[in-house]
Amino acid sequence: xxDLLKQIDAFVWGPAMIALLLGSHIFFxxxxxxxxxxxPLAIKLSVAKDPDAPGDISQFGALATALAATxxxxxxxxxxxxxxxxxxxxxxxxxxxxxxxMATKYAETYAAVKYRxxxxxxxxxxxxxxxxxxxxxxDADGKRDTVxxxxxxxxxxxxxxxxxxxxxxxxxxxxxxQASAMTGIITANAPVPPWIVGVVIVVLVSxxxxxxxxxxxxxxxxxxxxxAAAYALGCVxxxxxxxxYVIDAVVLILECAFTAKAAFGGAVGSxxxxxxxxxxxxxxxxxxxxxxxAPIVASAAATRNPARQALVAMxxxxxxxxxxxxxxxxxxxxxxxxxxxxxxxxxxxxAVYSGAMLASEAFAMIPYVGxxxxxxxxxxxxxxxxxxxxxxxxxxxxxxxxxxxxRPYQVVYVAVAFLGAIGVGDFVWTVSDIGNALMAIxxxxxxxxxxxxxxxxxxHYIYEGNLDEPDTDPIxxxxxx
Length: 481
What we know:
Layout: H1 2-12, H2 15-31, H3 39-46, H4 59-70, H5 77-86, H6 89-114, E1 117-118, E2 124-125, H7 128-135, H8 153-189, H9 194-209, H10 212-241, H11 243-258, H12 272-287, H13 294-298, H14 306-338, H15 341-348, H16 355-364, H17 370-401, H18 406-421, H19 426-449, H20 451-463
Antiparallel strand pairs: 1-2
Helix pairs in contact: 1-19, 2-6, 2-12, 2-19, 3-14, 4-10, 4-14, 4-17, 5-6, 5-12, 5-16, 6-11, 6-12, 6-14, 7-8, 8-9, 8-17, 8-18, 8-19, 9-17, 9-18, 10-11, 10-14, 10-17, 11-14, 14-16, 16-17, 17-18
């Protein structure tokens, strides 16, 4: 059964999925008029407040929560896995997916904020499931109707499919895998039994997620900027230590991205196509553009119109992939150039050598600061990822089963975190990885169907100078949710 799941996992994350996501990134880049050029404005908006706008949390709180879920093990181990399997050139393709992925993140967030709803308490609900539910609803006269329940059957199928796959993915990607990563890095550097680490994770996670999106966003607002800045600073220190090899590392990354140059004696990577495949796959996974996860929390942000929060959301892809993943990649490649013994280790154990092993060995080569930076990055990134994905699962379960299903889901979520900590995570990880791919399909389809609307309104709000204009469309209340 597990072997079958692994084959399914390899299939759904194969060339077709990469083509779908990367193709969407390029399509929306042109459809939105190269929205990436508005990055300076987007960064400025991300730290601005919009107190009179409807929403539950600040724009920065929504961004911090999305970043908490995005900057996880993929930012370190995922990059190392890409370098190990695709060679140094994979770093370039990861970086490129981040550049183009900003447009998809903008588009999916725009649609999510535009079609968000309110629950029985007036709190915001949003995501691809509500886009499907509202965007295609019609009344008896054929006019658009935003009342839930009037959507055609195929739109309801799309909504349920996204929410179901996302709820499954949250349990593994957000809980088991991250807890396993935290436990692995801690026990490798301290004599602590895994079950104790698991108990601590359960306590720390439970103390936050049972408080709702407000509590999660407050923690993420404080932790995420600190952890990202600390990790980035640590990488800069390592690059300073590797000073003589940094330029060579960048040149090697570019050469291996476009030529069949053998890196590190051929021990790492297998040519241009492998660099492209693994770089794109890991890049797409690291920034989550197109998966539909970040728009769920972006829908809760206090923003006067969808364009403002969409701009803020796209900076998440910039920070997670264009900055953090690129830094990690250059650190790894420059450290491998400076320490040929790492290549020898890979050559001795090619079948069992993993991305985690490569990251650990590379960072350990830097005296005094290397290992602490890796430990700090892995633990803090994994913890905040657990918090961020818990909210995604919360909203998906609410859509499927109503508010009374939230508490049981949260209990299951923290229980799975404990199982992941003690080593029962491989099966859950594979299932959730499949869920990750499958949730992207209905999300990409719906924003492609709405691309004309997104392009038209983007032109109005951003390119015609109406970014301060409030959205006059009412936000409907969904009773019973």
